[in-house]
Amino acid sequence: xxxxxxxxxxxxxxxxxxxxxAGFERPKQVKAANLEDVFIHLTGKEMRPD
Length: 50
Prior knowledge:
50 residues; mainly alpha; elongated
């Protein structure tokens, strides 16, 4: 809806798929930390290599 008028009537999944098919890409956001950082913070240990 926009200003009280229906501008598109479809399922959310279909609207997202159509937007992506049209070439839309959301800018990638990188978090300041990852799960490895959490592990090191919680344990005080580096992760072991495989």
